[in-house]
């Protein structure tokens, strides 16, 4: 009985001690109130932007002529050095002229014979005409004498034409440069037999200063440019000879500026593009025919362009570009935009933004649409020199 009483007292004592310890515990402090996240923003403002089109192309000679023989014979000499500049009319090759000289001399002799017969025929016709008045000859004799004179005069003209033809063929034995320019390698050597109008050119002459640059432009870009020009948002003249900048195959800029000469009037059905031909001065022969280059063509000036930093642009699941903006109540809004083209480290926003909008560029990972934020201006370095916007294809569209 005593043991039972002692056990009960012990349990009650332990419970009392536990209750005292529990009462000594302090309540946890209330959770700290979270502050609104801080974001850095830029305020977009309209500014003039020079719009350009960046197009790949290939160079081609301003003039090009393939040198071919117009008469057949053995090549007797070559009068030029490969790779040198030649002028129109310079003798390039000589074909053995002996056979053509003989034909020319023969034609001249035949002409002299024909001319020698004309005076006698003329005198005969005059005598026959006088004798007819005295009835000494018949009219048929007179007709025959006059016909013989006309035939003799026609023979003279025929022989003269043969002389001219022989002279031309003799002159063709001296093959001359049809244009001025730089001549390439010779495809034949002295002693070779060449034939008139053969398919293989003896050499090729190319005028390299100035030089053409041909680039394809899609009709979609051409139509877009025409619409913007007609709408008045872009100031420029698509038909004018716009200045063109050029970049070489290794990316270095070409030192001279060219001009747009013309746009082709036919669309290539396989590519859906038209060819633009540009002309560049090339006095140092830096550009050679067949080189790949990149031409930057000025389209015009967009007076009120909205530019947004590229780091501010994200994409939704459909791949559409959007930005986060802060409204007047310092709350975040998601704004879908149309990014027209890249300009250095910015996008040219064709729509979706208005002047004065505050676009978040830092802290995007900490905000959601509708959240309140604390706004600070974004830190920007010195403003680099403006780079023209190009119409190179961008993934932001």
Question: How do the helices and strands line up, and which of them pair or pack?
Answer:
Blueprint lengths: L1 H23 L13 E6 L3 E21 L5 E6 L6 E2 L4 E5 L2 H36 L5 H33 L2 E3 L4 E3 L9 E2 L8 E16 H13 L2 E2 L7 E5 L10 E6 L9 E8 L11 E18 L4 E2 L5 E6 L5 E5 L1 E6 L2 E6 L6 E5 L11 E4 L11 E2 L7
Parallel strand pairs: 1-21, 2-22
Antiparallel strand pairs: 1-20, 2-9, 2-14, 3-5, 3-8, 4-7, 5-6, 7-9, 9-13, 10-14, 11-12, 11-14, 12-13, 14-19, 15-16, 16-17, 16-20, 18-19
Structural features, described:
This protein is of the alpha+beta class and 397 residues long. The chain has four domains: 100 residues, Beta Barrel (conserved putative lor/sdh protein from methanococcus maripaludis s2 fold); 104 residues, Efflux pump adaptor protein, beta barrel domain (Elongation Factor Tu (Ef-tu), domain 3, Beta Barrel), CATH 2.40.30.170; 56 residues, Beta Barrel (OB fold (Dihydrolipoamide Acetyltransferase, E2P)); 76 residues, Helix Hairpins. The chain contains four helices and 22 strands. The strands form three sheets. Strands 1, 15, 16, 17, 20 and 21 form a six-stranded mixed sheet that branches. A six-stranded antiparallel barrel has the order 2-9-13-12-11-14. A hairpin with a 5-residue loop joins strand 15 and strand 16. Helix 2 packs antiparallel against helix 3. The longest helix is centred in the N-terminal third of the chain and has 36 residues.
């Amino acid at each position: 009985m005593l043991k039972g009483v002692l056990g009960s007292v012990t349990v009650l004592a332990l419970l009392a001690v536990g209750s005292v310890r529990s009462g000594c515990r302090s309540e946890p402090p209330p959770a700290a109130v979270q502050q609104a996240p801080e974001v850095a923003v830029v305020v977009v403002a309209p500014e003039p932007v020079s719009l350009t089109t960046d197009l790949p192309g290939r160079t081609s000679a301003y003039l090009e002529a393939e040198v071919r023989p117009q008469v057949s014979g053995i090549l007797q000499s070559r009068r030029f050095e490969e790779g040198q500049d030649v002028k129109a009319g310079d003798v390039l090759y000589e074909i053995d002229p002996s056979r053509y000289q003989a034909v020319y001399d023969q034609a001249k002799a035949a002409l002299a014979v024909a001319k020698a017969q004309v005076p006698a025929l003329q005198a005969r016709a005059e005598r026959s005409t006088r004798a007819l008045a005295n009835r000494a000859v018949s009219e048929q004799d007179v007709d025959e004498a006059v016909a013989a004179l006309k035939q003799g005069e026609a023979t003279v003209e025929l022989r003269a034409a043969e002389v001219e033809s022989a002279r031309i063929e003799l002159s063709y034995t001296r093959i001359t440069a049809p244009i001025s320019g730089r001549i390439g390698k010779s495809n034949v050597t002295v002693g070779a037999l060449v034939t008139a109008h053969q398919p293989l050119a003896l050499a090729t002459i190319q005028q390299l200063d100035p030089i053409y640059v041909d680039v394809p432009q899609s009709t979609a870009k051409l139509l877009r440019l025409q619409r913007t020009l007609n709408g008045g948002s872009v100031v420029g003249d698509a038909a004018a000879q716009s200045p063109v900048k050029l970049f070489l195959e290794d990316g270095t800029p070409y030192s001279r500026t060219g001009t747009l000469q013309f746009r082709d009037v036919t669309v290539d059905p396989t590519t859906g593009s038209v060819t633009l031909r540009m002309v560049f001065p090339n006095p140092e022969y830096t550009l050679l025919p067949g080189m790949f280059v990149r031409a930057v063509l000025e389209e015009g000036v967009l007076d009120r362009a909205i530019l947004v930093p590229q780091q501010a642009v994200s994409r939704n699941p459909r791949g559409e570009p959007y930005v986060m903006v802060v409204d007047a109540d310092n709350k975040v809004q998601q704004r879908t935009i149309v990014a027209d083209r890249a300009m250095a480290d910015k996008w040219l926003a064709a729509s979706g933004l208005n002047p004065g909008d505050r676009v978040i560029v830092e802290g995007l990972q900490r905000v959601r649409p509708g959240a309140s934020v604390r706004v600070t201006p974004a830190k920007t370095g010195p403003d680099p020199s403006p780079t023209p916007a190009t119409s190179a294809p961008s993934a932001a569209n």
